Automatic annotation (TrEMBL):
GO BP term (any one): protein refolding
This protein's UniProt keywords: Chaperone, Cytoplasm, Isomerase, Rotamase
Transmembrane segments: none
Pfam family, one: FKBP26_IF
Cell compartments where the protein resides: Cytoplasm
One GO MF term attached to the UniProt entry: peptidyl-prolyl cis-trans isomerase activity
Species of the source: Korarchaeum cryptofilum (strain OPF8)
Location (main, coarse): cytoplasm
Family designation: Belongs to the FKBP-type PPIase family.
Its EC number(s): 5.2.1.8
Catalytic activity: [protein]-peptidylproline (omega=180) = [protein]-peptidylproline (omega=0)
Protein name per its UniProtKB record: peptidylprolyl isomerase
GO cellular component, one term: cytosol
Record keyword Coiled coil present: no
């Protein structure tokens, strides 16, 4: 069973993340760069908080619920040992010209620069929500059992589009044809997203033998120009 869910993560005062455009706009965190669609939850694959995952698996389609997570059930307690001090020279060797508030990636870790003083830079590698008691609002939009619908959900999630924007059909036994929307196949990393989709399909849809991705381009009229 696959699940499509809408999630909003907040505390008593602030909304931090949401998959719902209306909520994002109301909270003042809306971004045109974000795709607001339900996320795909696949048991054994999705990296959700265990308590949240357990609750989703026991929910019915259309059900809404609210869950409170203590820090240890979410992003962990704040760990002062994850606050590190580096020399400016060390960071500059990594191509980083530090300023306060900058998000950096060092040794495969995400950190935020807290201060820059006298050639020394303090970086906090804790998760931004570490130490916070969080409230998760969840809606189980859809439970998916059909293999073709699961295939569509995998591709839609991988390309950050709504499942309704993906068209798929069986062309013969075990072979599927998937039509992508134009905004999906013009992405620079379109190929790697296809590979990611196929990897999930191989692990979870054993009856699928092959997938053909269809990309259709409309030819503009003679008085129109192609845009890149």
């Amino acid at each position: 069973m696959f699940y499509l869910v809408n999630l909003t993560i907040r505390d008593e005062n602030t909304v931090y993340q949401t998959t719902v455009e209306e909520v994002a706009r109301k909270a003042g965190i809306y971004s045109e760069k974000v795709s607001y669609n339900p996320i795909l939850v696949i048991p054994g694959e999705s990296k959700l908080f265990p308590k949240l995952m357990e609750r989703i698996l026991s929910s019915e389609e259309g059900e809404r619920f609210e869950l409170t997570l203590e820090p240890e059930e979410a992003y962990g307690n704040y760990d002062r040992s994850k606050v590190k001090v580096f020399s400016v020279k060390r960071l500059e060797k990594e191509g980083i010209h530090p300023h306060v508030g900058e998000v950096i990636y060092l040794d495969d870790q995400r950190g935020v620069i807290q201060s820059v003083n006298g050639g020394r830079v303090t970086v906090d590698f804790n998760h931004p929500l570490a130490g916070k008691r969080l409230i998760v609002e969840c809606e189980v939009v859809k439970k998916i059992e059909d293999d073709l619908e699961k295939l569509k959900a995998i591709v839609a999630d991988m390309f950050d589009v709504g499942i309704e924007e993906i068209t798929a059909r069986w062309v013969e036994d075990g072979k599927a044809e998937v039509q992508l929307p134009p905004k999906a196949y013009v992405l620079r990393d379109s190929y790697s997203r296809k590979i990611g989709s196929l990897s999930l399909i191989m692990r979870h849809l054993k009856g699928v033998k092959a997938v053909r991705f269809i990309e259709e381009f409309d030819i503009p009229k003679s008085d129109q120009k192609l845009t890149s």
